[in-house]
């Protein structure tokens, strides 16, 4: 079965913000009740930020599967992050997949795989050395099947 994937544009920002909110409700433990996530100004701020970001077609991309006009069934959003050349690669970017979400009514149809694959292809063509993401436990099997591993020693901390 072929899945029709398209690159999102700024007009998709409202749906992408909805999908971002949906992705943040994933439970910490697989197959348990989704986390409660309050509405608030952050949702509109997210929509505005997405609309602005999607105007930069060089370093930001989102790919979607539509379910109806102005309605998205699945999305994957990512960024190209500049990197310095090193002895093992002169590729100019690392890729960061920020948001992957599928509307619950459309899960199990291969939509997440299709949008993530489209995003990874875009990142690879643009010159990524490495593509990273943070996976929910529900998403780990998909990402592992696409070649992602957890054996990279990377540390982080929240900025203050």
Write a brief structural summary.
This protein has 160 residues and is α+β, with helices and mostly antiparallel strands.
What do you see in this structure?
InterPro entries: Acyl_CoA_acyltransferase, Bact_Acetyltransf, GNAT_dom. Pfam families: Acetyltransf_1. Keywords: Acyltransferase, Transferase. Residues 3-160 form the N-acetyltransferase domain. GO terms for molecular function: acyltransferase activity, transferring groups other than amino-acyl groups. The chain is α+β, with helices and mostly antiparallel strands and 160 residues long. It has one domain: Aminopeptidase, CATH 3.40.630. Helices cover 29% and strands 24% of the residues. The protein has four helices and five strands; from the N terminus they run βααβββαβα. Strands 1-2-3-4-5 form a five-stranded mixed sheet. A hairpin with a 2-residue loop joins strand 2 (60-68) and strand 3 (71-82). Helix 1 (13-23) packs across helix 2 (41-53). The longest helix is centred in the C-terminal third of the chain and has 16 residues, at 111-126. The radius of gyration is 16 Å and the shape is globular. The N and C termini lie far apart (47 Å). The model has no long low-confidence stretch (mean pLDDT 88).
């Amino acid at each position: 079965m072929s899945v029709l994937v398209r690159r999102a544009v700024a007009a998709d920002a409202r749906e992408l913000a909805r999908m971002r909110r949906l992705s943040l409700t994933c439970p910490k433990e697989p197959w348990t009740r989704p986390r409660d996530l309050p509405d608030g100004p952050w949702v509109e701020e997210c929509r505005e930020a997405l609309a602005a970001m999607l105007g930069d077609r060089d370093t930001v991309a989102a790919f979607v599967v539509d379910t109806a006009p102005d309605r998205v069934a699945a999305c994957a959003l990512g960024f190209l992050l500049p990197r310095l050349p090193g002895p093992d690669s002169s590729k100019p970017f690392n890729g960061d997949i920020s948001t992957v979400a599928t509307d619950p009514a459309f899960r199990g149809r291969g939509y997440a795989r299709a949008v993530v694959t489209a995003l990874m292809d875009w990142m690879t063509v643009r010159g990524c050395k490495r593509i990273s993401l943070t996976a929910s436990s529900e998403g780990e099997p998909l990402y592992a099947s696409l070649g992602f591993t957890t054996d990279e020693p990377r540390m982080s901390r929240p900025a203050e």
